[in-house]
Write a structure and sequence with these properties.
By secondary structure, the chain is mainly alpha-helical. The protein has five helices and two strands; from the N terminus they run H-H-E-H-H-E-H. Helix 1 runs antiparallel to helix 2. The longest helix has about 30 residues.
């Protein structure tokens, strides 16, 4: 079981880091597009909160019943997505991008998280953990909807 907990913690760390990378990109957009600063600042803040929620799940892995669907998780896909986020931030900082493209990328990011079901890697009978996972999913859906409306 300790090996399983270590793997689960590693997965959670990758997911949390991914949320932090999204927040970094959104903060970059907030700085580049003052007209929508509040929109991206709000999303970035919520992404940081998501990372914190995911990291707190890691602290509970050994104490609460959690099933990790290892077959559903692809560490390479997470790394590829994270690399994409880094490239987009570099591109924004080096050459800038049009506002419409930044909004399209935001929608793509949130839609990708939903379609890949990032937050369905774990299953639990714990009401507390289930609540956290549901919150992450619902807020990602809300981000997608806000991005769609803004676009």
């Amino acid at each position: 079981m300790p090996n399983r907990n270590k793997k689960a913690s590693s997965i959670l760390d990758k997911l949390a880091s991914n949320e932090e990378s999204i927040a970094k990109l959104y903060r970059g957009y907030a700085g580049a597009f003052p007209v929508l600063r509040e929109f991206w600042s709000s999303l970035a803040s919520e992404e940081v909160d998501h990372a914190s929620c995911i990291r707190s799940l890691g602290g509970q892995i050994g104490t609460l019943p959690v099933f990790m669907d290892e077959g559903r998780f692809n560490a390479i896909a997470i790394q590829t997505f994270s690399d994409y986020l880094d490239r987009e931030l570099s591109r924004l900082n080096e050459q800038g991008i049009p506002l419409i493209e930044a909004l399209s990328i935001t929608l793509y990011i949130e839609q990708s998280l939903i379609e890949s079901k990032f937050f369905e890697v774990f299953k639990t009978d714990s009401a507390e953990l289930q609540c956290t996972l549901t919150k992450l999913r619902d807020e990602t859906l809300a981000h997608r909807n806000r991005a769609k409306e803004t676009l």
